[in-house]
Write a structure and sequence with these properties.
Elements: H1 3-9, E1 12-15, E2 20-23, H2 47-53, E3 71-72, H3 82-91, H4 110-127, E4 133-138, H5 141-153, E5 159-164, H6 167-176, E6 181-187, E7 210-214, E8 216-217, E9 222-223, E10 236-240, E11 257-261, E12 272-277, H7 294-299, H8 309-324, H9 328-347, E13 353-354, E14 366-371, H10 377-386, E15 389-390, E16 401-404, H11 411-428
Parallel strand pairs: 3-15, 5-6, 5-7, 7-10, 10-11
Antiparallel strand pairs: 1-2, 4-12, 8-9, 11-12, 13-14, 14-16
Helix pairs in contact: 3-8, 4-8, 5-6, 9-11
Length: 430
């Protein structure tokens, strides 16, 4: 059958994102049914191209568009703002009239340079990053920074201190042992990572090069509400902020390095953001792999090799969205409200639900909880999924439940979860 026959027979549908009529084929040639019948070779303009390229911004939010989406409580990769996804979809085929997708651009072309520069500028605005700090868009996840930090800041015989408040802090500590002399000056492992230490009681190592923390432990749901001050005059504070990055204002000047995987609060997986005081760049150990050397990436403006271009583009859209919400103070206010509603539901359940974390350090991003009747946990997850609430199962290392309520989780999602929790308890608490 000719292509034209399929196209002519296909029912038309209105794509609300492109505002145009697109044919849909239900047959085995659905991949080509959308193309016109007059293709004779060469790069011909077709109706789909002209329609897609005419879109310059995402359409207004339509509740009907989100009716088939779930509330995704995953710890990462995690839910993204719907308006960001819609804008990315509208720009997928032809970004900014360039005639190509962001995924097709040269990372050294003017189009992508404008994308990465704007992303950095907006991130600097969000966090009020001082000019003496460099912003790097890297790859390898925050886990790669467990090695990059000591390799760039330390000599092999340097002492460094780690406060271990959960699994990720522990992994960072163990990785650092390959490149310097780390010391665990406090660990919450014996209490199943449910607390953060009293800073005044910490016995920091004299002359330590840096003090490392994980600002928010994704698995255990423990979050620093304030930050310890390194004891030494030249000692640096280093923070893995992967799971609470851009969830609240932070005084960047207190830190030597802040690093974060993007896939929880600000973008898709594949992008790692490093904010580093510029005078700390350029002293990497000689054996440092070139892709872990901050100097290389700084000198090349994060373009030493091909970066995760599309991921950086999405991060840029998220930064724009956060600024449009009123910046991080406004974002923090929303996050506080969501967390309060969920923790109140747990605490007021008369023990049916329990959060093991000390109240003063409970995370606003990752809320772990257990059921009094552990045998009901599988049913809880299954029934929640039927109500379009997914990824509530706790991390395999700790079990129970975990609701990750990052920036992009709407208040409606938390309210729906709380209502479900109360209904579930009413059915089983007897």
């Amino acid at each position: 059958m000719a292509i034209s026959s399929f196209a002519a027979a296909a029912p038309a549908t209105t794509n609300p994102l492109l505002r145009c009529q697109l044919p849909i084929s239900t047959g085995p040639v659905s991949r080509i049914a959308a193309f016109p019948s007059n293709i004779t070779g060469g790069r011909r303009s077709i109706s789909l191209i002209s329609c897609a390229s005419s879109v310059t911004q995402a359409p207004p939010f339509d509740a009907n568009l989100s009716s088939d989406r779930v509330f995704n409580f995953a710890a990462g990769p995690a839910t993204l703002p719907e308006n960001v996804l819609l804008k990315a979809q509208s720009e997928m085929y032809n970004w900014g009239g360039s005639g190509m997708s962001v995924m097709e651009m040269s990372h050294r072309g003017k189009e992508f340079l404008s994308i990465i520069q704007k992303a950095e500028s907006n991130l600097r605005s969000l966090l009020n990053i001082p000019s003496e700090y460099s912003v790097l868009f890297l790859q390898g996840g925050a886990t790669t920074q467990f090695a990059a930090v000591p390799l760039n800041l330390c000599k092999p015989n340097n002492d460094v201190d780690y406060i271990i408040t959960g699994s990720w802090g522990d992994k960072a500590f163990k990785e650092a042992a390959k490149y310097c002399k780390p010391k665990s000056i406090w660990s919450g492992k014996s209490e199943k990572y449910t607390k953060i230490p009293n800073f005044d009681a910490l016995e920091q190592t004299p002359g330590a090069r840096y003090l490392h923390i994980c600002a928010n432990e994704t698995i255990h749901g423990v979050e620093f509400k304030d930050y310890p001050k390194p004891a030494g005059e030249n000692e640096l504070l280093i923070a893995d902020m992967s799971s609470n990055f851009c969830s609240k204002p932070v005084d960047v000047s207190k830190f030597g390095i802040i690093y974060a995987g993007a896939q929880k609060n600000v973008g898709p997986s594949g992008v790692t953001i490093v904010i580093i005081r510029s005078d700390l760049i350029g002293t990497a150990q000689p054996s440092t792999p070139i892709m872990l050397d901050y100097k290389i990436h700084s000198e090349n403006n994060s373009l030493y090799n091909t970066p995760p271009c599309y991921g950086i583009y999405i991060c840029g859209l998220v930064f724009e969205d956060l600024l449009a919400q009123g910046g991080l103070p406004a974002v923090e206010e929303k996050n506080t409200q969501k967390a309060r509603i969920l923790y109140d539901a747990i605490d007021e359940s008369r023990g049916f639900y329990r959060c093991p974390v000390e109240k003063s350090v409970r995370s606003k991003m990752n809320v772990p909880f257990t059921l009094e009747k552990a045998e009901l946990e599988a049913e809880f997850v299954k029934e929640a999924a039927k109500e379009k609430m997914v990824q509530l199962k706790g991390h395999r290392s700790v079990g129970g439940m975990r609701a990750s309520i990052y920036n992009a989780m709407p208040l409606a999602g938390v309210e729906k979860l709380v209502a479900f929790m109360k209904d579930f308890q009413a059915k089983h608490d007897h």
